[in-house]
Amino acid sequence: MPELNFRNGYFYGVCLICVVLFIFAVVSLGDTIVDIIYPHQYIEPEFYLKKELRYEKDYPELSKEELKEMIKEKNEERRIREEYNRKRRIILSLTKSILLLLLVIPIYLFHWNKIEGKL
């Protein structure tokens, strides 16, 4: 085992931090993969339900059928927007996790090889 001095302590510290970051990146990657396979189920927020009830007051000139059609269109727009946001969040999370893994592994290997005296 190499002797313990400030230089090796620094390298051990960097290796420890890299291992912790590696664990966080793997957990984040696993969480994102689970989110891809089993997406969150959509639950209608109370705010939107109340808003739909106000449409009758806000648009008194519209018939019931026109109101239903307008609500249906707005719900579809909201669903499309939420799906886009979900995909964007997944892509960002995957990118962060993969980049962190790609950064941490070489840094760890470099510092560990310095400790072992191979570099």
Describe the structure.
Keywords: Membrane, Transmembrane, Transmembrane helix. With about 120 residues, this protein is mainly α. The chain has one domain (about 5-115). It contains three helices and no strands. It has helices spanning about 5-35, 45-60, 65-115. Helix 1 (about 5-35) packs antiparallel against helix 3 (about 65-115). The protein is rod-shaped. The two termini are about 15 Å apart.
Quaternary assembly: single chain
Distance between the amino and carboxyl termini: 16 Å
Largest sheet: none
Shape label:
rod-shaped
**Total of DSSP H or I helical runs spanning 4+ residues:** 3
The whole-number mean of residue pLDDT values reads 86
Which strand-content bin applies to the residues? under 5%
The secondary structure category is mainly alpha
- Detail the poorly predicted runs: none
- Percent range of helical residues: over 70%
The total tally of domains equals: 1
* Count of distinct strands: 0
SSE order: HHH
Instruction: Determine Rg (CA atoms, Å).
Output: 26 Å
Structure, briefly:
With 119 residues, this protein is mostly helical. It has 3 helices and no strands. The chain has one domain.
Task: Fill in the keyword field for this structure.
transmembrane helix; membrane; 119 residues; single chain; transmembrane; rod-shaped; mainly alpha
Write the layout of secondary structure elements.
Blueprint: H1 6-37, H2 46-58, H3 64-116
Helix pairs in contact: 1-3
